[in-house]
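$ fold --in a.seq
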Amino acid sequence: MAHSAQLNILEQNCPIQVEHDRKRRQFTVKLNGCHDRAVLLYEYVGKRIVDLQHTEVPDAYRGRGIAKHLAKAALDFVVEEDLKAHLTCWYIQKYVKENPLPQYLERLQP
């Protein structure tokens, strides 16, 4: 079942909605209706460890803060589910450096 979280940043007068598809292990933001989407992929690499592997935003939508919302949603998921995270994705590594919240830092795997 997909879970939606409404965020307060507006994209062409429409709020950015991050959807979490647990079955497919991904967070997505639908762009331009349903035609394009931004995605953050993850995998379980242990019983309570997720690897945040890859974030992708289509070129036409880059620089608008969409990846930040995906990263925040994924890290909030890690915190809420009491998981540990390995950060393969360079963008999420950068996000954590720019947002060094204790609840994120204590969940990181080397």
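$ fold --in b.seq
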Amino acid sequence: MGLPWPRLWLKRLWVLLQVAVHVAVGKVLLTLFPERVTQHILSLGQQTGMAKNPHFTHDNWVPTFFSTQYFWFVLKVRWQQLEDMTERGGLAPNCPVVHLSGQRCNIWDFMQG
């Protein structure tokens, strides 16, 4: 990992709290104001192109926002982003790579000395 262990775990704890608050507030707002939150999510979908697919209606994906699966997915992505960061003079991230032979390994497997 690129960050020192104690600092990485503190940042992970901070990200966990951020994501938990984000999901909790989103769930409350989705319960209290479903039309407004759906409208906001649809406007975000228009910007990303997600709402432009005629076979993928908002009824399929809006209810998944702020769910338990959403929480774990966002948390996993945010934690992975922490592990991919490094600081000047620190260790490089141990990113997964694929060898030319097709074998999967990590970049630290190639370190010498």
